[in-house]
Write a structure and sequence with these properties.
The chain is α/β, with parallel strands linked by helices. It has eleven helices and 19 strands. Strands 4, 6, 7, 10, 11, 18 and 19 form a seven-stranded mixed β-sheet that branches. A six-stranded mixed β-sheet has the order 2-1-5-9-8-3, with no helix packed on it. Strands 14-13-12-15-16-17 form a six-stranded parallel β-sheet, with helices on both faces. Bound molecules: adenosine-5-diphosphoribose (APR) and zinc ion (2 copies).
Amino acid sequence: MRAAVLRELGTPIAIEDVAISEPRAGEVGLEIAASGICRSDLSVTDGTLKSPLPVVLGHEAAGVVTSLGPGVDQLAVGDRVVVALTPSCGECLFCQEGAPNRCLAMVPGMIFSTMGDRTTRLRTGDETIYQLCGVASFAEKAVVDARACIPVGDDIPLDRACLLGCGVLTGAGAALNTPEVGPGASVAVIGCGGVGLAAIQGARIAGAEAIFAVDIDPVKRELAMELGATEALDGAGDVQGAVRKRTGLGVHVAIEAIGKSETIETAWEVLRPGGTALIIGMPRSGEKIPIRAGGLFLERRLVGSVYGGADPRRDVPLLLEHVREGALRLDPLVTAELPLSGVAEALEALRAGRGARHVIVHSR
Ligand code: APR
Ligand code: ZN
Ligand code: ZN
């Protein structure tokens, strides 16, 4: 099958013929229908996020089940599924504590770019090809953990449903799973890419009263207004001053969806006393944040958030319900659809800050 392989950091990703093996116990084979291109994929290409190489990137996927490994009885061939980033094993420490978004079963995928048994199902000749997040969806096919597959109905096209695999679950989930983002709340969303635009929609669905959208790109600011922001602010301007002018004391919640120390600092500074800075962007490993400690004595809270604090098996169907009702709009998030061969170009567009989500589409 064809897959986009990253062989060396800083070099363009190239389409290669890659052999894919049959699913092992607890795994399924998928025909990838669509894969969104997320900032985290780009972050692997420049070393901001680490992965062994060569690797097939792509982790925001939807597809159709084509084969079942031994012991898989919860899915059938032909099922249309969104692939979650965590298997939510139900057994590990974190799943037992009710935090499947921290499931230990996703560690091999996240750290080693392998399946749960630390091996991969992809190779060229004798060479192991790694699978980003255990998904590797910049490809025609994939083998993934069956527990990560969440069935979706026939009524939602897979080239939109795929966005729930990462960006939309991370953004909308973070807003919907944070009790402070509720009716009457004021929220600032800093960074309005695929993830931030989903956070804005989540905040609107949660009933937030004021939603400030902060981005350096006017196109993103316009999109943010279309999707429910009540005011858009230029990230290159005096964000803190503008938020204070409108709110007096600052916002209840600032959601940072970029992963840069300076924007995390902005999230901290726009908070009112008792406010929460929710960091959903992924900073470069080793990055330090220069925040003013005095804010702690205003009972501000700096909170990390991974994968929208979501339980994918609960939250993906819930978000799909919002999509059906028209409250969560996926179409405006998609800047362009492209074939697998367009992936290098789309990564370049993302690097240059052009557009929200690019989606590789094989079928719908
Ligand atoms: N101030 C304001 N906006 C900024 C700034 C800044 N200093 N720098 C970048 N931006 C905006 C960009 O213009 C863009 O709209 O942040 C947005 C980031 O969006 P994307 O690059 O599309 O990233 P996205 O896929 O949404 O991911 C955001 O979440 O999952 C993580 O790794 C991912 O850290 C990344 C974050
Ligand atoms: Zn678990
Ligand atoms: Zn992602």
